[in-house]
Amino acid sequence: MNRIGKLALVAGILAIALAVPIAAANVIFVYQAQATVKPVTPVVWLQGPDYSAVGLSLSNKTSPQVTLTIPITNSSETYVYQALEVKVNAGSPTLYVDSCSYSGPALTSVELIVYPTTGSPSSPTGTITITPSSTGCTASGTVSLTAGQTYYVDFQVEPTLPIPYGASSGTLTIYFGLTNESAVTVPTP
Fold it and tell me: Measured in Å, how far apart are the chain's first and last C-alpha atoms?
């Protein structure tokens, strides 16, 4: 190999040797970030401490269907404490009854009394009144809820008197709805 060939070979090797660190230096400045975010459900539906008094069951936690077996007697009213619990994680939603159905002895009304778990039913946050009938039921009223609060829902059942002989219970199914749910913001790292 002649002298010019050797110089060209050395120059080529030198060029490759200089190019490799420059190419590798660009890789050093690539950053990878990972963020773990715990999803937040704005409202969580739970069975309350006394859910068994009415056999309360929840079949869907996000847009809940609540089913109650209501004991009906010849008293003017039956009051069930703390059967349902509503935990508000975010936003300021408004609770309402979207629809409902009832089967059993005739009822005048079922009042849903909503109050914070730190409060009492005598000073409720709000009430919703359900009027069941043989053709369905209607509901009126809404309750404004606050983020960071947990609420109990009590049920005040007023039967249509007199109760027929042998009647013992009715089944009320309630589909709750929420409006004004705020989006949950996640802070940047």
Answer: 61
pLDDT band at 169 (very low <50, low <70, confident <90, very high): confident
> Which tens digits make up the pLDDT trace of 49-94?
988 888 888 876 556 788 888 877 777 888 889 999 999 988 889 9
Question: Hey, what amino acid is at 47?
Answer: Q
Cα–Cα distances in angstroms (integers) from residue 157 to residues 56, 104, 150, in the given order? 14, 13, 23
How many whole angstroms separate alpha carbon 117 and alpha carbon 85? 8
Closest by Cα among 43, 117, 39, 40 to 87: 43
Residue with tokens 């069930």: 80
Helix (H) or strand (E) holding 3: helix 3-28
Confidence of residue 136 (pLDDT cuts 50, 70, 90): confident
Calculate Rg over the CA atoms of the chain: 32
Could you tell me the residue ranges of all domains in the chain? 43-179
The helix (H) or strand (E) run that includes residue 20 is helix 3-28
Class assignment of domain 43-179? mainly beta
Q: Where are the beta strands (DSSP E) in the chain?
A: 43-47, 57-58, 65-71, 78-88, 94-103, 107-116, 126-133, 136-140, 143-144, 150-159, 169-179
